[in-house]
Every structure is written in C-alpha cells, then in structure tokens.
Specification:
With 350 residues, the chain is an alpha+beta fold. The chain is built from 15 helices and 5 strands. A 5-stranded antiparallel beta sheet has the order 4-3-2-1-5. A hairpin with a 4-residue loop joins strand 3 and strand 4. Helix 9 packs antiparallel against helix 10, helix 10 runs antiparallel to helix 11 and helix 13 packs antiparallel against helix 14. The termini are far apart.
Length: 350
C-alpha cells in the first residue's frame, strides 16, 4: 500500500495524472482489464488503441463507470437496433440508426474516439445503407454510403458483421455493389457525383489503394460513356475480359451491366441489341439475391427493349417481378418513365 501511495504521489508531483483503469464488460461475456481512454457515443477506447462500439459493451466498471452511465441507454438502444437489423427487421432498426446519425452530425461525439476510428459511426452508416436499400430509397442509401466511406477512411478497421440477405458493402474494396452508378436514380447519382473530385458518379466509387481489378473495372465503365465511339468499343472489349476474370462476383455483374447498356446505346441492328440483352439477362438470372437492385434495373432495361420491339407479352413477363418489391422502386420508376416517353398513349404499368 505504501509503495502504491508513494508512486501516486510522485506522479502527481510530476504533473502526470494516471489514466482511469476499469473493467470493460463486453456483451459476449469477455472482460477487458485496461486503462479506459474515452467513453462516448463514438465508442469505448482503451489503452492500446482498441476501440469498441458502444453496442458491443454491456458495462464499464471502475472510475469510468459514471461516464458510461450517461450513455448506457444509448448503448442498449443501438444494440437492439443492430440485432434487429441482423434479424432483417429494418422497420424497427432504422429510426434508431437515423437518430444516432443526426446526433453525430450535430457534433455529439468525442475527439479521441473519432481519431481512433469510430466503430460506432461505421455501424450506424452501414445500417442506414441497408435500411435505405430495403425501402427502395437509393438517394438515402447513397448518402449513407458516402458517410460510411468518410468514416472508414479514418478507421483502423471496419466492422465485419453478419447481416441477412445481400451484402451492402464489400469489405475488400469499400464499394456498395448494390449502388451501381449507371443505374441509380438521377438524384442518387447527384449524391455520388458530389462526393467525387472529378464530378463523375462512377469516380465516387474510387478510393486510394483500390485493387487492380476493381480500378480497371471502374476505368472501363467510365469509358463506356466516352464521346468517342472507338473508346466505347475498347471499353466493351475490356469489360468482356473482366467478365471472364470476375466470375460470380459483383464485378462480373457490373461489367455485364455496363457492357450491355453500352451495346444497347450504340447498337445499329438487332443482332447487336440481342448481344446487349444477353449481357443484361445474366444479372437477374444469376445475381437476384446478392444484387437485387441491379437485377431489377437490368430487368427494366430488358422489358423496355422488348416493348420497343413490340414483344409486349414478353416485356410484361420480364417486368412482373418489379410490381410490388420495395427494392425494385428505382427500376420501376425508370421503366414507367421510359414507357410513357416511348409509348405515351399506351398503359405503361409494368
């Protein structure tokens, strides 16, 4: 006891205040004995740089218990929202996540935790991406993804959480595969464009250190919108090669979609348009579960082309899955607008 008191006295005389030591009780049952540097909505940061999301923590004991008590209810609320989202119950999870996002935007966060990379803010942003996509709101999904990217750029790691259904964010690249810039709504494309240094929606997907195949894919997709026909043709050749190299991944789906759309735009005969339809048909046939929004977008383009040819029965059959699914909302609106424009005197309800 005398040694401990003497050590404390020496520290105080030297002007050094020891950090608070505490037990952090994780919801898995793990106990972490470490100096707690910060307790805030951003998370619980302990000596050594470990940062825990508040939904991961059940309790903080010791000198920092009082600080924890001020956010304990918030931690419980976020834990419930996260577990509900993991049960695919977005309706109850989304309002809580939006409230947290509003509080973060209002500056209700801690400098130390944020510098360490806010795991809590990353969880909230990813949850909001999933919520918006489940509601067919690609504008809010784009905003949430931009938020996630901003948080991830300063984080030492990103949470690896299991959610049911299609993945919202590809951890290896930080891309949201379900938000392909070529087929999102105009409003969502504007959100992505505003987050891009070059003023291009597809460039918003880029980030420093992106792997070679993904960078090459994004370059080829961007070139499909080039003013030069030769450049567009070269881009389609590159996309065909990337399709073969990316079998079964979101990259293949993006490559086929971009190539199909480019072929449709440049086609001078039905043979070329048939090749475009074949590319687009791969996406709903093989990626409906992993990339539902992109699959619906390709269905809408297929239906519009079939209707243009006068094959209305086939067009209706292809468009049938777009009728009631919330995740098909963007594709459904695009198809309705396209059919109204191309066939103003016909019933364009898919």
């Amino acid at each position: 006891m005398i040694v401990r008191i003497s050590a404390l006295a020496i520290a105080l005389l030297a002007g050094v205040v020891p950090c608070a030591s505490a037990d952090v009780v994780v919801r898995t049952g793990e106990r972490i004995e470490a100096e707690v540097l910060e307790v805030s909505l951003d998370g619980v940061v302990v000596r050594g740089g470990r940062a825990l999301r508040i939904d991961e923590v059940r309790a903080v004991e010791g000198p920092m218990a009082e600080a924890w008590a001020t956010i304990e209810d918030d931690a419980d609320a976020l834990w419930r929202a996260r577990t509900r989202l993991q049960r695919d119950d977005a309706a109850l999870a989304c309002p809580v996540l939006r409230e947290f996002a509003d509080r973060f935007d209002a500056g209700d966060r801690a400098e130390v935790a944020h510098e360490a990379g806010s795991q809590t803010a990353l969880l909230v942003a990813e949850g909001l991406v999933r919520c918006a996509l489940s509601e067919g709101d690609d504008v809010s999904a784009a905003r949430a993804w931009v938020r996630w990217r901003a948080e991830a750029s300063g984080a030492a790691r990103t949470p690896r959480l299991h959610f049911p259904g299609a993945e919202a964010i590809d951890r290896a690249t930080g891309v949201c595969p379900r938000l392909m810039p070529l087929v999102v709504s105009e409003a969502a494309a504007e959100v992505l464009t505003s987050a891009s240094r070059s003023g291009s929606a597809i460039d918003a997907v880029r980030r420093p250190g992106l792997d070679g195949p993904t960078s090459e894919l994004l370059d080829a997709i961007a070139r499909t919108e080039d003013d030069d026909a030769g450049a567009r043709a070269a881009a389609r050749t590159a996309l065909a090669r990337l399709t073969e190299q990316s079998g079964g991944t979101w990259r293949e789906a993006w490559a086929r979609t971009a190539r199909g759309l480019s072929l449709l735009a440049d086609a001078s005969d039905d043979e070329a348009r048939d090749a475009a339809l074949l590319e687009l048909a791969h996406v709903p046939a093989r990626f409906s579960e992993s990339l539902p929004e992109l699959a619906y977008a390709c269905r809408a383009r297929l239906a519009a082309e079939l209707a243009r040819r006068g094959e209305h029965g086939a067009a209706d059959a292809v468009a049938q899955p777009l009728r009631d699914e919330p995740q098909a909302a963007v594709a459904r609106r695009w198809l309705d607008q396209t059919m109204t424009h191309d066939h103003p005197h016909e019933d364009s309800t898919p």
